[in-house]
């Protein structure tokens, strides 16, 4: 279980991904993402979270090829390599009204160390 309503654990993330509904946002740099990513995630660098999560629904879908989550969606997760940038992105999203946004604090490092698939 994650330590707060702002975080999601590895096992919870695996279950979340298995459902196939929801959005996982990788906030690492392009170079980091090019070396590996969580399947199904989209890439929004941490410095662009504010502007990209503020796009209207059609602009978001056009840019990322996925439906933008609603403000009250419980299916929005951010992650980075080890948790810090994911936490920053989660707080930014929450400040924009995505009140249930969560951070996968284990990050890509934990995902890859545990053989996440």
Structure description:
By secondary structure, the chain is of the alpha/beta class. The protein has one domain (7-114): 3-Layer(aba) Sandwich (Oxidized Rhodanese, domain 1). Helix content is 39%, strand content 10%. It contains six helices and four strands; from the N terminus they run αβαβααβαβα. It has helices spanning 10-19, 30-34, 49-52, 57-64, 84-95, 107-113; strands at residues 23-26, 42-43, 76-79, 102-103. It has a four-stranded parallel β-sheet with strand order 2-1-3-4. Helix 5 links the parallel strand 3 and strand 4 (102-103). The longest helix has 12 residues, at 84-95. The chain is globular and about 35 Å long.
Largest sheet: 4 strands, parallel
Report the C-alpha radius of gyration, rounded: 13 Å
General form:
globular
Q: What fraction strand?
A: 5-15%
In DSSP terms, counting alpha (H) and pi (I) runs of 4 or more, how many helices?
Answer: 6
So what's the CATH class?
Answer: Alpha Beta
Protein name: Rhodanese domain-containing protein
Pfam families: Rhodanese
Domain Rhodanese: 18-116
Organism: Onychostoma macrolepis
What are the defining features of this structure?
117 residues, alpha/beta, Oxidized Rhodanese, domain 1, four-stranded parallel beta sheet, 6 helices, Rhodanese-like_dom_sf, Rhodanese domain-containing protein
List the SSEs and their pairings.
Elements: H1 10-19, E1 23-26, H2 30-34, E2 42-43, H3 49-52, H4 57-64, E3 76-79, H5 84-95, E4 102-103, H6 107-113
Parallel strand pairs: 1-2, 1-3, 3-4
